[in-house]
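Troubleshooting log. The previous structure file for this entry was overwritten by mistake, so regenerating from the original sequence record. Sequence copied from the archived sheet and checked twice against the printout by T.R.
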Amino acid sequence: MALILGIETATQVCSVSLARAGEVLNERYTEEANAHSAKLALLIRQLFEETGIPMKELQAVAVSKGPGSYTGLRIGVSTAKGLCYGLGIPLISVSSLRSLAAAALSLRPGMDLYCPMLDARRMEVYTALYQPDLNPAMDIRAVVVDRDTFAGPLESQRILFFGNGAGKCMDVINHPNALFDLSIRASANNLAQVAYERYHKGQMEDLAYFEPYYLKD
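Regenerated output below.
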């Protein structure tokens, strides 16, 4: 019944969650711009105060590893590492895009492909394509979206686009098989199940050498 703290800072949303055996007990978040460094520690403290669970009971910390906001990822990973060092517990990392795809799959089943999109300025997004079993149909990459970007798979497959980079692509990806759900966003809740599975498989990170997955220099 592992108790795991989740930290998601890959986007403008800064959120934390506490989960036991993959089931979320509580979440705290803020959408205040550029507030990750000021609010993350506060959100974590509020999370434990509200649940009444002592921090010493934590068995691991899971962090969204990227891609995403460079600054956000650095803050999230450094905070996660500090907690792990201080408490003597392991660090688990989860792909920001895969965890977002897992959330979309649970909320919108029945699609042929799932396409999480994280904003990377202008018309560029960090993205990938996932099958309903969450195996990748297109590996993670940075893409400048135009009307031909997903033209091939859209000819024969229904694709759900979501995440904070999807909204700006709605007018560009104009196809009957393209569906958009802008309510699906990055959240620490999305880390819970994957983190629990990795904890029991012993898939931990090396605290000394782990770094965020920035994707681009």
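The longest strand covers residues 136-144. Archived copy saved in two places this time.
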